[in-house]
Every structure is written in structure tokens, then in C-alpha cells.
Amino acid sequence: MSAKHTAAFFRAEGVLVTSGVMQAAMFMAGQRAGMRERALRFGQALASAPVFGLLGQNDRTLGNRVAHLCYRDMSEDRVVVLSEEYVDDVLSEKVLDSGIELMRKAKADGHRVVVLSEGISEIMERMREKWRYVDDLVCNHLEYRGGKATGKLVEPVIGGYEGGKWLTSYAAEHDIDLSRSFAYAGHGPDLLLLSAVGHPCAVNPDFTLRKAAREADWPLMDYKA
Amino acid sequence: MSTQGRLPLSIRETLAGKHILLTGASGFVGKVWLAMVLHHIPQVGRIYILLRGKGRGVKERFEKIVNESPVFKPLHDAHEGRMSEFLSQRVEVVAGDVSQPNMGIEPDTLARLLADVDLVLNCAGLVDFNPDVREALSSNVQGAINVGDFIEASHHAALLHVSTCYVAGHRDGFVPETIVTDRTPNGTSISAEDEYRKLHEIIADVEAENDDPATEATLREDVVRRLAERGHEGDYKRVTDMVTRLKRKRLREMMAKAGTDRAKALGWPNTYTYTKALAEQLLAARADRLRFASFRPAIVESSIDFPFAGWNEGFNTSGPLVYLAGTWFRHVPAAAGNALDVIPVDSVCRMLSIVACALIRGENSQVYQCGSSDRNFLPVDRLTELSALGHRKYLREHGNGALERLILSRWDATAADPEHVLNVTNIRKLMGQVTRYLKHGMPEKIPSELREWADDVSKSTDNGVRKLRQIEEVLELFMPFTYEHFCVFECRAVDRHPVVEPEFRFAPETIEWRSYWLDIHMPGLRRWCFPEYEDKAKETYAPKTPFRLLDAALEPARPSAPVPAREEAG
To answer: At residue B509, does pLDDT exceed 60?
Structure first.
């Protein structure tokens, strides 16, 4: 029996917002309680920059792990409150309207709209409230013990090749025909995600994905707003 | 503690037609409970409100409470236009005073109440931590004794006596729901009767010392010398008046100190908890002759939903801690991991209603502790951070100028050792020195603009010193709970009474502290409590149709009933 539904998968970073995990981590680190803690954690967040630079086009998992180390010992209360602040003050200004329009159109066409993000749930759930078209959000989750973040992310960490693996099981669970579905993403590690659907589209792609998209003759989109 | 075989308790059915005598109806808890019961259980019998005052003064005082307190807004809204009729049919205001024999009630009325009343809810009490010990004895101890006498003399009334969790005194660990009658928190053997007598002796000794001619002579010499220093020559009457005032002030200070000293010697942190504990012990000693339950709330704070989210009164309990977290002062004296046992006032009133019904049905335990630490632990360091985050959210939008919006909003308060170099005391002293320098230490020959500037700044720092002094005093009173002791108050006796009506269920475990603190409690404090501390105009409430107590609801007053200053005590 063939699947009845279709979906449109959107990678948030690069497609819907310009700001990524590192900016969020640096914002959070800069708002820690106490100057010493702020300096230390800001340095930790900054350390993820070269990791993303070196490995980001192949696997962003390590970069994500390093960036989120700066959340260590931060209370869940602080993460939640600062996430609200980050979304309202920073991330809302970094939204790509063209991406939102793609989402709106996908919803109007009857697709299930699914957003994948490397961002943490505290931030992305609040962002989701602003995006009216999202049916499902898949994002990273901070690990907490005794109300404090351990600095680790709950497995599986979004950002590597898991996007592609996860897609297959998600499609089966929701009775989705991937061959009639769409995907929009912009990073090298999203190759598996894009190749799993019938209608992939590389949006603002990095070098690796741009090259692969050209070779596979996938549509390419570039927008800055 | 099994509830098996016991039918769930219907608050509505149990209280229907029951007559209740309420003392302390003008206090924080008393008002909310009264409004809640009248709102949810209009079929309740008569509620007798014991208020201090005489004749029409009592009536007017009750009308003022109902017309001006936002607590009664749900009732006004529900019975708009018919509020006077609704309330007058259910409430009778009785002139009296719990600290007086027979609670100061006129004999005919007393006889009627002794026959009618099913339950006495004794919310009366002096809630200041270190008051004049005579007042504490009168309200908290003598008041409880008098209410106990009423119960013994009554035909069928039971007593629900409101105490406090902090009768546990200086101690660590799990505090069970029991009354310890034979020893104090520091292990001293005690007999409540003996201690009651001892307290009277202490008061008599202090009075005698203050009335001693030698004391008066010293004071007189002091007054004459001071007047002479200021170039005044005091006549006899003027000096005598000043000496009398000084003696009165001195007596009050000595009485406050005597109470605190006695409390601390026995293991209680202050006069309030000591006298409340003594009252409990005296009532427990009469347990064979009177049906009673002691109800011990922890730190009563802003309501969750009744009368509306965030209702609060006064500037004590957590208010100063929260206020402090929003200032430039960063180090809140608290030990990480210690509980600050906060419980919303509407949760307290729900549990009061449950225990009231259990008492009426004869199914009660002797002690009910009403707190959150046993069921939904809130550490003081979390509370401090939540307060800092709440101020951050507020100041980012409403701060005065860029300094508050950008810097103060990020100036996070943290729990710190009380001896931290930047503690309140040191900052207050530093500010005091700055004030003194600005007022008296500046060089004589400075430009007039600089002098004016110094005068302006000194006024601000002087005001700051005064406020810090207030905060310091409150923090010191709270230190036993925020820093010195780790206490968890058992709160399980209430589980013996499953309740039918959802609006009366007691469930502190369902409180989500973050949203409570940020979205309910702090906005509540900002709206109802901080203005009082900051000498700003308080938000007032006025119903569309003012409530008037119809004559049938006012009993004749006893002309001799005394009218002491405090409002809470009856």
C-alpha cells in the first residue's frame, strides 16, 4: 500500500534563519551570572568556531557538541529565560522571509511541514510559536541534571548525517511518501536528507552542498532575506 | 495515614449551614479565606467576624475592608448590585478582641455564639517577628488561650488554630507534623504552663526596671544635658514630657529585646515563633477537653488564582529578598540548597477549608503543616536566580534609562555567604560614610554648584541607607531559614482527606516554580507590595456598587471593648 501523505522538510539554519548554533551559544555564554563565568563560557563557545570551520561542511556534530559545552552548570531557569530573550531580541531579526514564504507555500500545497534544527529546544520551540506553519519540530535537547545543564546534548545530536537516517523512520511513522516530498537545506551534512526525498532543493548552500547539488542537478536557491 | 474506606470529603456539603467564627479576618490569610468560602460556598451558615472596635465603628471597618481590598473583587463581580444583601445574609460582625477574656464579646452575643458556632477559625495573631513581647503574648498566647476557653464552653465548636511551620525553631532536617510539648528546639525541658508564667515574670521585671526611680533620674539628667547642649533651658513640664516619652520608647525596646532573648535562649529565632509555639503547647495540654487542630502554614505568598493571580500584601517574607535581587546589591545571604518554604495564599486557604471540614466531621489530625518543601522543593538559591531573571525581564522593558535597561538588568544576584565582603551591612556602612562625608566632610570653600550636588546626592544615599537598614533587618530575621538551617516540613496529614471539589484540592506539587515566580509572584509583588516599601501610591480598588452591611448583620457592641493598635489580632 503506498503512502498517502507528503511532507516538506526544512533545515532551519541557513534556510529559515541566518543565525546558527554558535551565535546562540555565544549569546548565552555572555549572559552567565558573574563576570568570570561569562568570560570562561564565552571562550568555550568561541572555541567551536574553528571546529565548525574545519568540519562543518562534512559533519557538524562535533561543532555542536563543543558549542553547547558553554551551557554547562547553567540552570534550566536561566536557559529558558535567556532563550526567550535570544529569540525576541536576536533570532527574530535573523529570519529569512524567503524561507518562511517557502514554508507557507508548502503548507498551502498540503504538505506536512517539518523543521529540523541544530538549535536547542528552548530556543526553537519559542521560534516555532512564531512560525505558524510548522507541524513538527526536530531539534537538539540539552541534558539536565538536578536542574542544571551538563553541557551535553541528548543523543542523537542533530547536525550530522542523522537527518537522513531519521527521515526514513519519520516517513514510515507518519505514512509519508518521500518520493513526492520536498526538502530544503544548506549544509554538506544534509546531503542524505536531500537525497532521500523526490524534490530536494539546496538553499544558500555551502561549498560541499553546492558542488553536490550541481552534480545531482538539484535546484539551487540563494537568498539573503 | 491511610485514606482507605474513607469517603472523599465534600467541602461544599460539609460547610453548608455550618456557623463559623473567624478571628483575624483583616489579615492576609483571613481575608482570602473569607472571600474564597463566600465565593465558592454561598450555602455556608453564618460567618461571625470578630473585629476590634465599637458599635458602628466595627461595621464601618468591615465595610472598608470589603470595599477597599482587591481580595473581594470576585465577590463584588459575582454579586454586583446585590453584594450588600448577599454578604449581610451570611456575615455577622462581632465586636471583640481575642486577647480579652471571653474574647471581649458582649455577654448576650457570647451566649448565642457558644450555642451556634460549629467551628472557630483563629487566624488572629501578631505576625511581626520581634515585636514588644507584651503584644506578642497578648495576641499570640493569651488570644489562643481565650479562644480555647470559648471552645471548652461552647456546645459543639471545634478550633482550627493557625500557627506557623517555624514553631520548629532552630533545627535542621525533617520536621514532622507533631506538637512537641515537653522540650524546646534546643532541647531544654519545658512546661508550657511554667513558661507562660515565666514570660509574665519577664514582662513584670522589665516594667519594674523601667519604672525604677534610678532609671528615671538617669533619663532626666540626660534630657536636661541634651537640652542644655542645644541652648535650651527646659522647664519641669517639658523635661517630664520628654522623659515620659523616652521611658515609653525604652520600655518598648526592652520588651522587644526581652522577648527575643527569651526566644533565642530556648532555641527559637524570634518572639513570633516562640509565642506561637507556646500557644500550640498550651492548647495541646488541653487536648482532652477541646477539639482542635493546629494549622501551620510556611511562608505564605502570592496567590495562584484566587482572588486572582498574584494577590499579595505587606513587605515581609520573600518580598525583601526579591527586592534586593533587583538592586545593585548582588549577594543575597543564603546557603545553596536550603529550602525557602513558600506556599501561595490560595493553596493555604484551600487546605484551611479541608482541615476545617475534617474537624467538623471529627476526622482530623492534631497538626497540619502547609508548605511546599516536602512535596515540591524550592531551594533558596534557585529562588534568588529566578528573582534576578525576573528583574532582568522587567528592567529590559521598563528600566529607567539605559543604565537600568542594559546594566542593572544583567546585574545578577546570587546566593552568597552572609560574611561576604559586599554584604548588606558593609554596603550600608559604606553608604553611611559617604553620606556623612557629603553632609559634613566636604571642604568649606567649594563652589555652590558642587555643594548643591553633594546635598542632592547625600539625600539619595541617606534614603538608600534607610532602605538598606530595613532590608538588613528582614534578612537577619530570615537568616535562620535561608542560611543557618536546612528544614523540610512534612506536609502529608492533609492527604488523609481526599476532596471532591477540584477548586479546593491542595496540590503544591503541581506548582511550576519558574512560571509561578516569574509570571505570578514577582508581578504581584511589584503591583501590591513594592509600592508600599518605595513610598509610592498603592493601587486602589473600588467596586462599582459599594458594599453596605445591612443592620441585621451587626450585633450590639460591648462598650468596654478595648481597641489596641494592631489589626491582625482579632
So the answer is: yes
Contacts of A76 in chain B (CB under 8 A): 514
Looking at residue A163, its pLDDT comes to 65
Output the pTM of the full model. Answer: 0.88
- Chain B positions in Cβ-Cβ contact with residue A31 (cut-off 8 Å): 410
Closest CA to B301 of B350, B349, B344: B344
Count of positions (residues) in chain B: 570
Question: Which residues 6+ apart lie within 8 Å of A121 measured at CB?
Answer: A139, A140, A141, A142
ipTM of the complex: 0.87
Are the C-beta atoms of residues B537 and B531 closer than 8 Å to each other?
yes
The per-residue pLDDT for range A157-214, each reduced to its tens digit, is 887 776 677 888 899 999 999 999 999 999 888 888 899 999 999 999 999 899 999 9
**Neighboring chain A residues of B412 at a CB cutoff of 8 Å:** 33-34
- Euclidean distance between CA atoms A13 and A25, whole angstroms: 14
Per-residue CA distances from A134 to A125, A131, A165, B28 (Å): 11, 6, 21, 46
Domain residue extents for chain A: 7-221
CA distances to A59, A119, B496 from A71, in Å: 21, 13, 43
Task: Identify the pLDDT of residue B47.
Answer: 98
Burial class (CB in 10 A: 0-12, 13-18, 19+), B209: middle
DSSP secondary structure, B136-151, as one string:
HIIIIIIHHHHHHHHH
Nearest-Cα distance to chain A for B514, in Å, is 7
CA–CA gap between residue B529 and residue B538 (Å, rounded): 8
Please, what sign has the CA dihedral across residues B313, B317, B322, B328?
A: positive
Q: Find the distance separating the first CA and the last CA of chain B, reported in whole Å.
A: 34
Dump pLDDT digits (tens) for B22-72. 999 999 999 999 999 999 999 999 999 999 987 778 999 999 999 999 999
Give the torsion sign (CA, A12, A13, A15, A17). Answer: positive
Dihedral of CA atoms B436, B439, B442, B446 in degrees, nearest 10, equals: 170
* Residue A77, pLDDT above cutoff 90: yes
B518 to chain A nearest CA, in Å?
10
Strands B299-301 and B342-344: parallel
Residue B358 CA to residue B355 CA, distance in Å, equals 5
- Dist. CA B252–CA B91, nearest whole Å: 37
Question: Quick one: CA dihedral B515, B517, B518, B520, positive or negative?
Answer: positive
A31/B410 Cβ within 8 A: yes
pLDDT band at B567 (very low <50, low <70, confident <90, very high): very low
Q: Is the CATH number 1.25.40.10 carried by domain A7-221?
A: no
SS3 B302: coil
Cell of B176: 514532622
